[in-house]
Write the structure tokens for this entry.
Amino acid sequence: MFGFEQFVALNRRLAGIWRLAGLNLLWIAVTAAGLGVLGAGPASYAMAKYLHRWFRHGETPPLVPTYLRYARELRRQPVLMGGVLLLAGGIVLVNLLSLSDWYLRAANLVALAVLWIITAYAFTVLAALDVQGLRAQLVSALMLGIGSLHWTILGTTAVVIGYGLMLRFAVPLLALFGVGLPAAVFAAICSRILRDLEPSSAEEPRTTPRPLAHSAARTVARSRRPSSVSDPVRPFTKGTPA
């Protein structure tokens, strides 16, 4: 039976889908406003931070003002990271299209896989972790992806399947979820990874159970008493049964 709780859950899921579509449209708008190269970094950082706060902490502030504030938050760092990733991607793609030697193409395919892992986690590292310096941020993203390689593979598979379904049945959905789909998938993965990396709450110190403690105390006390006290010896006389 479809009750009130099911209706609330369905409404929450639909609101989440529309919020993700809104993030995708805002990403397109901010990227276009920055002429692509200058806008892709801040747009990706703003999306990563909004999704991180949403998935990790359950925060869903007003979409447009919050996204625009996040896009202007760090100024140069997202622009620099976006420019580096775009430049590296362009070089790898040009090499794949122009090179004919199989070993060079294989090396560039490996470079493309590494670049995908870094891109998937880089902006979440920038948004969620206190890592200073572009090199340290890129290395942290790579280590995060390789350290949880099974999650990276599962997330990449989910993104590929999602793109395949949209291309097969609903191409216009790419305008609504083309960037939001991988961003949401890897934001959820990062939330899970960072939650697992958090130190667990301090456990209560373990104490010996009271009955065992009392029995242990009695045993120690008994062992320290002289034998004359614990086991009195009766004198043995002739004719008296032992």
User: Anything to note?
Assistant: The chain has eleven helices and no strands. Residues 19 and 62 are 10 Å apart (CA to CA). The chain has one domain: 4-197.
